[in-house]
Amino acid sequence: xxxxxxxxxxxxxxxxxxxxxxxxxxxxRSRLSHVLREEFQLVGTKVxxxxxxxxxxxxxxxxxxxCSCLTAVGQLDGxxxxxxxxxxxxxxxxxxxxxxxLRHGAAQCGICTPGMLVxxxxxxxxxxxxxxxxxxxxLGGVLxxxxxxRKIVRAVLEANQPxxxxxxxxxxxPVGQRVARLDGRNKVxxxxxxxxxxxxxxxxxxxxxxxxHHRAEFTFxxxxxxxxxxPGIHGIFTARDVPGKNCFGVIPQFSDQPVFAELEARFLGExxxxxxGDSAAIAALDLGQFPVAWKPLAAITQPEEALKPGAxxxxxxxxxxxxxxxxxxxxxxxxxxxxxxxxxxxxxxxxFIEHAYIEPEAGFxxxxxxxxxxxxxxxxxxxxxxxxxxxxxxxxxxxRIIPTxxxxxxxxxxxxxxxxxxxxxxxxxxxxxxxxxSRPESIRSTTKRHPS
Length: 452
Fold this sequence. Notes:
This protein folds into two domains: about 15-165 and about 185-190, Roll (Ubiquitin-like (UB roll)); about 205-300 and about 355-445, Aldehyde Oxidoreductase, domain 4, CATH 3.30.365. The chain is α+β, with helices and mostly antiparallel strands. Helix 3 crosses helix 4 and helix 3 (about 90-105) packs across helix 6. It has helices spanning about 30-40, 85-90, 90-105, 115-125, 130-140, 150-155, 185-190, 225-230, 280-285, 305, 335-340, 380-390, 420-430, 440-445, and strands spanning about 10-15, 20-25, 60, 65, 80, 205-210, 215-220, 235, 265, 270-275, 290-295, 360-370, 370-375, 400-405, 435. It is built from 14 helices and 15 strands.
């Protein structure tokens, strides 16, 4: 029976969630993934893309695997929903599958593991003895950036088979014994805490205003009037609100990225401001109305352009646009070319490469007296500590970095991303502030692998 609608945008929806009847008052257009995580605090269901591409958010709806980020909760009145948190109690297959994942080392970073396990349960309960092609087909909607899939496929194939016989004990402690991952159990239970999985109950949300141009000068309008006209907005922050050094970078001698651009933005997606407010205000926010005027400028997009005489400097500290110079010489190059049977001369170009981790950047910050605490996904907590201390102009001893599990990083999460915005906002507002990058925002604004 259809639930009674409370308002034009809110409905009372009843569903079976992990074997228990639950009700939620929600916009019927809300994503199931959002309702599971925000309303029911079932954060074992991960969100990687919000577009149905990665499959990390897979849950069972009436026994069938679906991407919860593409499923409107209004479609689910009376439906049976099972997440990784509930499968252990409802599925005898689940325990065997988890043990097989642990035995094969199939869970690496762990961000895709809940989606893989849920999809595998659906397959094995319908077909207890699948072949490799059937396993690959069943898991085809869940992406893994770490493993290459072979361990995952093998774990599913052998989940319903007896484990291999143990090797004879060597008598030398752990020699000859399989080493289990210390964090493996939490990964296969969906209990590993990633950047978006924990936040203080009274957290405000943050959104970043970014330039839509490759290069542009900009000026702000009346930011205070903009804030007053929008109840629920607690603060707007720009470069003038950075208490310390408006700059960061994972390699100190090359540190040149401002927290917020000042007067001129130098790449598409560079941050110029942050808006912080309660969840309803941020959800309703239209950044297209943010009071900023852009004056697009000629942008340098190719190395050859940057090296031309008179080219504008990307950074004032490097007027020739050269980050670092070097020369490698081995042997007599001229003689080698002269005596070679064949000489080939060509020009090659390679591009920057997106790391494409499944987990988007996420975390929260809170001020505790004269200290700042930041919990976020990071590969370099001590580097984060040094940069945040400089940005806030406080001693390093007043900064606490709490690293979460990292749902893939591959080097990109060595550098700061959202941590400076969270730190500045939480420092000024004295309230916890959290943020999760969208997938387009992550790709547009974070560091890339250099061309080879």
